[in-house]
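re: ur question from yesterday

yeah so i grabbed the chain u mentioned. its 437 aa long if i counted rite. heres the sequnce exactly as i have it in my notes:
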Amino acid sequence: MHPPSFLLLRLAALAAALLLHPAGALAADANTLTPQEQAAGWKLLFDGRSTAGWHTYGKKHVSAGSWKIKDGCLVLPQGNGRPNGTGGDLVTNTLFTNFEFQFEWRVGPVGNSGVEYLFTEGEKRTATFYPGDTGDSPMGFEYQVLDDAPNASNAANRLAASIYSLVTATGKTLRPVGEFNQGRIVVDGNHVEHWLNDRKVAECELGSPELQRIIASSKYQYYPGVGVKRATAIALQDHGAEVAYRNLKLRELRPTTTSAPTAAAPPTPAATPSAPMTARNIPMRAADWSVWCWSKADNRWVEHPLDKMTVQIQDGVLSARNTTNSNWPRAILLYRGTLLDGDFIISADYRGQLESFDLQSADGGNQRLSCLNPPQDNQWHSALISRQQGQYTARIEEASVQVQDNKAPAGMKGYFCFKLRPGEAVEVRGLVVQAGR
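ran it thru and got these structure tokens back, copy pasting raw so excuse formatting
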């Protein structure tokens, strides 16, 4: 029996559409959020019509001749794939700390790209990682985007969906070239996951002995910033091949894996928290700490490898000394394990010399809360900062200390840190965090 004529017309229209579009390119409602996704906190990073919210790495805009909008996709034309070339990595204007990021990607034959995260834009490197590397590209974790078949000779941890050059994606189902694959990246506290087409294929724990061993045997051994938790932009990599991305969706997470709950709690200020807060006794791990130095050129704090401050951890005590040179005299030791957003109480024991202990804005700008003139001797002291109902408090033991509010808004997102002058040294132990909204 022949189908009705109207059905023949529908089949003909569908066949024509499939000829005009690559397989998988006809997903319904691309670059939109369902009511359920909106209720769950998802946000679009790309609206399908413009590059609003993005810039080329190292610039304040999207370079002309680079990423284009085509058929509801961010598309990078073929180029030389090198920093300062015709393309460039496309970077979000916003930084994220704990998040779930979903995206769809499509490459052509021999296609190569990646989604990069856990990096600090503008950080210069002395080590080079590929021919033509000028140090002007993201260096952190990468979700590998690749046509696997012609790259079968690559190391397994350099194939699609792997944590590039570190953790191999396993048990994956990769769709054919020309079709869209769905990727997902999860950064939840120190836990990282890569997903491909609704299946988890790779994971690791930041700061774990296993990951540190892998990094030490990889090319990243020459760059200590890889695998360090930080507030990060998300970058779409220019590797010279044409690539398309769409349905870029992200939701921010409250970290659940930073540490285990404990009954211990720090001394609490008189104010009553506006929301419940859970005390967490934080283990001392090098991966949770970063060094920022003040950049006059950028007028902000920029992240540096830990060699700018000699840091070691032994028996639960972190020891640090400011070893910066005259080019970077101001340095802070920043606890990156918890982004302080909303009400919080954070405390730690310290002894030694330091200029202040601070709440530093997450974006590295000049907004901060400085707790000045702490005792400097060989005795252990308990330092505490809190923000409750928009009011800041700082204490050493039970005594209030001088607080300098440098344009720190009541709801500023920030990190707990110690500021050290050149040559100053400090020891830290007993870090406890309570956080709530």
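noticed a couple things. Residues 278-435 form a domain with the Jelly Rolls fold (CATH 2.60.120.560). also The longest helix spans residues 5-20.
anyway ttyl
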